[in-house]
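anyone seen this seq b4? input:
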Amino acid sequence: MSELKAADLVEIEAIKQLKARYFRLIDTKEWAEFPGVFTQAAELDVTEDAGEAGLVSGREQIAAFIERAVDGTQTVHHGHMPEIELTGVLSARGVWAMFDCVEFANGSGLRGFGHYRERYEKEDGAWRIASLRLARIRVERFKAGQSPGGKP
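predicted toks r here
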């Protein structure tokens, strides 16, 4: 691994801020701002959860897909331990350990643990997500009336 320069660390921090904004906008359901975290030609792969319907292309299409998926839910998303590598002046890739809790309107839900694998591109002077693949390694489901920890 080559030595990072101060300017590289500034770019990596900007990507971390982008991912923090992604999580916040989903959890607070700020849908007007949400498409802006993606490049125009972004690609989403959540086939593990949604089958073939989970392959989505395009900024607006991805934002609409995610909005529909979590509409009427209460969500909490956390990203941890980012591994971010600058691959060019306008490109980077990263892996994030993740945790999410999704509670549906009927009180059932899930807690997921896994990783986001992403590519980033600098578009219009700002870092954006160019591709996102979510893979959970553990999912804990809970029923209505149970706490997310699975206990009544």
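Residues 6-28 form the longest helix (23 residues). Residues 6-142 form a domain with the Nuclear Transport Factor 2; Chain: A, fold (CATH 3.10.450.50). kinda curious what u guys think
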